[in-house]
Amino acid sequence: MTRTVETPRPSRPAFLGELFEVLTNRGRRLLGRRGAGAATESPDLCELGEALLSRRGEASGVAIAQDLLAAFEDADEATRLAFLHDLAERFGPDPAVVRAALEAVQRDPEDTLAIEALHEATEPRRQELLRRLNLAPGGTAALVRMREELLAHLKGNPALRRVDLDFAHLFASWFNRGFLVLRHIDWNTPASILEKIIRYEAVHAIQNWDDLRNRLQPTDRRCYGFFHPQLVDEPLIFVEVALTEEIPDNVAGLLDLDRQPIEAERASTAVFYSISNTQRGLAGVSFGNFLIKQVVEELKAELPNIRSFVTLSPVPGLAAWLARQRQDEMSELIGADQRLAFALLDDPDWHRDRTAAESLRAPLLAAAAAYFLRARDGKGRVVDPVARFHLGNGARLERLNFLGDVSANGLKQSHGLMVNYLYDLDRIEANHEAFAEGSAIAASDSVTRAQPISNA
């Protein structure tokens, strides 16, 4: 299928872009450097970092920042990893400065200026380096890619953890919700963005352009993206919405290419069936709560006939969690009868056998209720990451849907279970506060009743 590719909007007004280029070129002349790509040998990334921190002029600083980011992206993997290690080892706090600041506080513990000086002294030099790199044209996007590279090496390089903490600290400020802009995405959106929707879809893969059209063009479908001013044509999060006449309990009907669309005015329910984060380099960075509430309010303004706002969400960790509970004979989260019933799950085609599937319905729903309401991770949090997102946004755990997703991925990650979270406009703030302050989970009676049988 052929689409007309529209020219993406610039990330800043043209005259500002030209001004940045002038400043950069002047900075290079001041430094005696030629334009990007003119060097005959690869620059030393660590030396460029030290040079950037030593400069006071903005023109020369922007030029060095641009050179460093370009050199990092052009370098091979080993060179990039070495630079990340340099950030950890050579761009931490200056020990001599920290020692002097600490001695000043020890001499007068009530001196607030000395305390503030100590706080400033303990900040790693790499944080200021990252701030200066962010001043380069395209610097924000380049730093997001740099952190993506760092995350790929984190498991085998624990020393990089402190660098990651600095990235996360800065990104939490640069990408807070106040900077995000909500935009409606439809079939007329530039192809450069639509291609990214296909690429980044993380919940229900988009097979082709026809599949994408089925999610954007019909009257009973909506899609919204959250964008950042420095990443204008890169959606950070996008939300796919189906308008329906009832709360759905399975995803196949929503994605069916042959379904019959309804008029938006007939719908009573808005279903958020896919919410995808697109930037791996922003993993773990919270964009703030109430993002979904913003979409809810947008829909409510357009379609006042919508009364229910729900999700149809995956449960990505349920199958792995249940496998661990089955292996742990002392587990208090599943009962003895459940444990026996779950032997049927070892048959990959259990869901095709009507008798086997029906015998698993109650045990699996009980295990899912325990998974959401009682299971906790090592940090004391709700185990499921999707649940943490929606509960943190003020939703209520509304319904557990047996065999809601019988795709290969749905069966693998959750034995086919899906969940509806309900966004009640009158309760969102209260639910959010209860979850944030005391980890209290808002859940419907149907979920709380589906408790596991005691092991006794």
From TrEMBL:
GO BP annotations listed: fatty acid biosynthetic process
Protein origin, superkingdom: Bacteria
Coiled coil: none
Record-linked Gene3D superfamilies: Malonyl-CoA decarboxylase, catalytic domain, Malonyl-CoA decarboxylase, oligemerization domain
Domain Malonyl-CoA decarboxylase N-terminal: 91-175
Provenance organism: Paracoccus versutus
Record's signal peptide: none
Protein name: Malonyl-CoA decarboxylase
Every Malonyl-CoA decarboxylase C-terminal domain range: 178-424
Pfam families associated with the record: MCD, MCD_N
